[in-house]
Structure formats: C-alpha cells, structure tokens
Amino acid sequence: LFTGNLREEEARKYAQEIEDTFDHVEVKTQDIPEDSAVNITGNNLVWREVNKVPNALEDAILNIYQYGPLTKEGFAYLKLVEYLMSNEAYTYLRTEKNLGYIAFLYSDVISNVLSLNILVQGSTLDCVGMDREIETFLGKMLEKVEKLSDDEFQKSKDALNGNLQTPDTSIRERGSRFAPRIRDKTYAFNLRE
How many angstroms separate the CA atoms of 177 and 188, rounded? Predict the structure, then answer.
C-alpha cells in the first residue's frame, strides 16, 4: 500500500522493486493462516522477569489485561475504557503516587487478542510495589465508572466516537494506524467504523 503524491504506475513500480528485492512469493489469501484466540477465562497468568542489570536504579512493569479476541465491539469497548481511564492512570500513578516519569495506560491488539495495558517505569517502588498500586488504581476506577450517570457515560461515548471518526490528517497518522494491524496479521483496518 502506497499513499502520497504519486501516480498509480509509480506505486506499482515501487511495489515491484520491493518484491524483487525481497524475492517476494505471492501467497493467496486463503493460504494465510488465521490467528486464533483461546478463551481461558478464570485463569490469571502472571509473568515477571527480574531486572538483570546489576544495581539498576529503576524498575519497569507492564501489566497486560487480555480482554478477548479482536472484534469491532471489543475494540470499541476497550477504546472507551482507555478514554475513561488513561488520564486518570497518569494522574494517579505518576502525579499522586510519584511512581516514575513513565506511567500510561493504553489499549492494544497482540496476536489477535485485545488487551488493556498499563506501563510504569520508575525508582520509587520495585515491580511488586508498582503492581500493587496499579491494582489499587484499577479498583478505584471500577468504583468511579460504576458511579457514572447515564448522561456522563453517554457523553464519554459520544466524545470517543467523535475522536474515532476524525479522519487521518497525514500519511504518518494513517500509517501509524495501519501498521499494527499488519504486524498483528489481523488486517482489520476498519475498526474505527
């Protein structure tokens, strides 16, 4: 896929050059294996890797909360959760708890599975302490979201929908949106619809 100020014949020429360079072999759509997700609801998996740098001054933690297989509905749900929680996560984890300079929450698709991710890097607490604060934050957010009025909830949905419907303003924006869907092999380019 080429976008920009070039004619179709130029785009085809560049694509052919890339194929020739990488000795590309065409694969038919029906021959591309589909990623699949297996529901293991009820099983909590925790994986921790200890910092192998001796005397490291900082730790980092990335909590990944898997939601389920990639669907438009699931994508919309997690985008709404991200919309409601991302600023709150930054305020609580970075500003209030001063866990580190890096603290953010984002939704993602990894191997065709939707996830909500929270990343914190800092020197105030070790990973176990950071994890405890992340879980405390999630508990507080659950209480806050449950108390939202129907009107507040609808306003959040409408604002998010407006954000998602905003057209890309540059090739970079479009590429940034499409690249992950190519990387995760879902090719789900129309999730914002």
Answer: 10
